[in-house]
Amino acid sequence: MSSLAMPAPDAGTLARRAEIVSDMKIIVPGEGVVDHVTGMRAFETDGLTAYRQLPLVVVLPETVAQVSRILKYCNDRNIRVVPRGSGTSLSGGALPLQDAVLLVMSRFNRILEIDLPNRAVVAQPGVTNLGITRAVEEDGYYYAPDPSSQIACSIGGNVAENSGGVHCLKYGLTTNNILGIEMVLMSGEVVRLGGRHLDAEGYDLLALMTGSEGLLGVVTEVTVRILRKPETARALLIGFPSSEQGGQCVADIIGAGIIPGGMEMMDAPAIRAAEDFVQVGYPLDVEALLIVELDGPSVEVDHLIGQVEAIALKNGSTTCRISASEEERLAFWAGRKAAFPAVGRISPDYYCMDGTIPRKELPRVLAGMRELSESYGLRVANVFHAGDGNLHPLILYDANKPGELENAEAFGADILRLCVRVGGVLTGEHGVGVEKRDLMPEMFGQADLDQQMRVKCAFDPNHLLNPGKVFPQLRRCAELGRMHVHRSELAFPDIPRF
Amino acid sequence: MTTFTPSTAGEVREVVAWAAGEESPLEVLGHGSKRGIGRPVQAAHTLDLSRLAGVTLYEPEELVLAAKAGTPLAQIEALLAARNQQLAFEPMDYGPLLGGPAGRGTLGGAIAANLSGPRRLKAGAARDHVLGIDAVSGRGEAFKAGGRVVKNVTGYDLSKGLAGSWGTLAVLTDIVVKVLPAAETEVTVALRGLLDEQAAVAMAAALGSSGEVSGAAHLPEGVSGGMLGGGLGGAPATLLRVEGFGPSVAYRVKLLRELFPGVAADEIGAEQSRGLWREIRDCMPFADGTDRPVWRVSVAPTQAHGLALALRMQVPATVFYDWQGGLVWIRMEDGEPQAELLRALVARCGGGHATLVRAAPAVRAAVAVFEPQAAPLAALSARLKEQFDPLAILNPGRMIAAA
What we know:
The complex is a heterodimer. Chain A contains 18 helices and 19 strands. Chain A is an alpha+beta fold.
């Protein structure tokens, strides 16, 4: 495990563990409190398995009233709390703290209401992302954001992380597809934002909550917008001799006014690994492979397929296959969807990064990555949500070789710095968590981070909810609130006015 | 009373820092086209951002545009139109409704008011299209959030969080928005003669179909007659807009018409359709040159007609519906805002919110313009305000009366 500075555990809390456990058992009777090491072991990490930590105690409440009582209890006694959904975070967002109650929301697993005329589903936060689609697909609907962990990840976790997927360019992220939430503040107060209606009556707190990584409140109910499933979907599998040509093809498709449902690119190492794994006929003599999926009425899809094909040819595509059946479309995707495990076959370990860049910068970033790959002596394979610029470099390493994980992490950090340098961001959909926490200053100045922490102060002034995540350095709210005003500072006559 | 007209973000910061030092409130304005919305602001000075203007980045293939906050919306829309692109959230123009000229307004104002038009239903609100911002807090500190890419979860989403805050948290100085291709063509299917309740059922069916409807409005008798200079005719009109590529539009129009056998239906071609939806977007039926109270009510779509019926049993009101019914425009015909009555009915209809977007200043000073919030939520909003603007110098009292 590489070194990671987390907030120092509170000795008083650790000393009172037995009392806290017993109080938790009163608040959540039955099976809802796990306090033995063997039971807690299952919760010591999330999808970022390089980091592990046993919590103080694991609590699995069943009702909103219990969540409220737990948070109020902890708030009153200055006890830290780490919320957790399904534990699929790739950035360590649900990493426990030694002195914190781990609040696991998995027993909130019911769909509460399906409202087709208003195209809304009300679900408890522990319902899986795919569970929502499953509940409405017989009626012809689906929930659009589809993170690749959708079989396991929870809708509450999706709100916390603002999860994306491969269809974001056309259908948006979680923040664009939820209508409302119920949440509990660290004080124990229960607050409802939105509902089945649109937009906020006041400040858009739902925007702040979505993607707040469990630092602002605990989501206890989510209302999502569902959409009619497109009548058809067809895909093109297009190979290019260079990533520049692939990238230009993407730009030209969008320039022609076409917004595909999905648009994915893979580089040569990723293509090869995927083809070796699933054997779906990916071309092995290309540098970039593009999957373009068009969805909608078949008349529209057929109309646009021809246009995309022409654009690809104009950009020098060397292969272009068009799916003629649903089986073939799924085969095109099979390699892309299996890219991570495929890379897992050719390397003992891999480390998945998640920067987003302006699309046009792709060739420059890939070239930079090749140089870094050489200097670090580690291989890298790339899958790229080409439509929205979200890049997932997979760094191949061997954790059993001393120093190689640290080397891979340093390589990853350099890739993210490169993403920021070309106008992109540190994380497109995996979150900051603990993984990218210390890189935040690459993208934000202290004033930017201070204002974000002030938002935290409005929700949780004692920094008790999920501390040690997102922000590299916690500053006390009293200190952040101080105003440094200098009355005479304004160069008053220099201000244009009339 | 001083009016500051900074032309750089640095000057904005200086003005706000000075105002904070003096504890002297500022009214924050772009073009002032929506100045009549909200509680009247009592501020010693005015911060006029109309000189902080200019598009700083436009890359059509990247679907991104950045501009200074005071950039005229009309300029941005013209620039986009030249490349067959648009602001997909279809920002409404409040000018005519509030008795001012049409075509005014800045990008900063559109985001600060979270202005969204009929396409809100399908494409999202203004806030959904904000990718990044630079702003100055009421503390007089410049900060940035977000970026220029669509997929970004780095830190709290302050860019979207500041949308709809009416200049009471921070002064936006630069804004990056996502832009999208404009539709190749459009057709509106107009179902004729439906009662409000029947229209609600029809709109729900249309939105639940594969028609990919990008606008769904219902104009009852008495409202429809005034549209398109009388061109729409006086019968109730339930309007379903279909946008996209030609062959797809033709197919979906046919699909929608087949959903409603036995209902009289017209097809309105692209040019007239664009004009019609502009009038709906800008609430032209109530742009009557008066200050009779106009409410903008957001409820679950299927609750809208029940709300309107219950209201009209008690007070004279004219109503029409956008967003499948999720947006109800209401004009109070006897001049009384009836805030308590209306809000009680909204609560009874499953909840939502009512904003008094037009009323005389004296009315706006006395009646809560924005929907009052439950106590814990109101307290949370107040704490958020304090974290951005602890001295309450930005648009004081515009959203909520000072404590």
